[in-house]
Amino acid sequence: MSPELSSEVRLEGVGKRYGEIWAVRDVTLTVLPGEFFTLLGPSGCGKTTLLRMIAGFARPGAGRILVDGEPIDAVPPWKRDVGLVFQHYALWPHLTVYENVAFGLRERRLPRAEIAEKVSAALSQVGLEGFEARRPSQLSGGQQQRVALARTLAVQPRLLLLDEPLSNLDAQLRAQMRVELARLQRDLAITTIYVTHDQSEALALSNRVAVLQSGSVVQEGTPEDIYRRPRSRFAAEFVGAANLLPVQVVELRETGVLVDAVGGARLPVPADPARWRTGARALLCLRPEALRIEEAALGRETGFFATVVSRVFEGDRHIYEVKVGEGTLLRVELPALGEGRIFRLGDRVRVEFSAESAVLLPES
User: Fold this and answer.
1) This prediction's pTM
2) Which residues on neighbouring strands pair with residue 317, listed in sequence order?
3) 3-state secondary structure 169-213
């Protein structure tokens, strides 16, 4: 599939209510042709309901969905030309791999030779040549997932919808399939909407990500934007590890604000001064890998003092937990390569960071 054949999806004020509960509320998004777009959020946030509405298995209670500028809310699922890969694959256990992949093509009453050609091409795309005669019970979880993907690709849909397709795989296979899925989507240039609760998948695979909370989009942007510049406490904590340090704004400056933190530290932070007032309470978001620790006596006159309370070695990194003030705990991740100092429990240290890596968030 070439980029010019890929479709654009637009959601305009889409909502879905079950009884008195809004599963999805006022969602407006645009997914560009050929884009890998991820709906990210915890269980119950509305991401699968959104996917089901795009696929046609649920009707919006508010708003509308357009594909290439045409409303599709009244179009039945089988006429939408959309491919959906489920979390549990939904393979026919009594059919061979070939028969599973050919199923949708036979439903379309294509000639036998054309079916054989399309099945062969789809299995080649997912690396399952030679598996045609096997049944699902003879395949690994990763192979079953590939069959489900091949079955969807065989009918050449204009949209590919993926509902947590890697969640049933073990960690190593999930990482491998993540790479394969990214390669396949890039090669096909098919517009893809991916649902997951796994922030690592979202960051690794996506061109853009929409973070959902309680049925609403709380932030949308590139993976880098979502991770480095979260706009809320929820986004900061859900997308990666985040230290949230309570602070108080004490001075507004042209290029940012000055805050007081626990332990008596006074820290400059880049922020729009128009959004803050003196005396406001806030949270300073500090990613663990953006922090450094030095011996208290050797550190520069920046950052703040802390005490090491734990250390874990994970091969490529040391993960420290340090206590600031009377009980605020911060996570610090340092690379294990080189001859850097290893700190012990009880060591007094100074925690340092570059101001550009810090984000000031509303307290609530």
Assistant:
1) 0.89
2) 335
3) CCHHHHHHHHHHHHHHHHHHCCEEEEEECCHHHHHHHCCEEEEEE
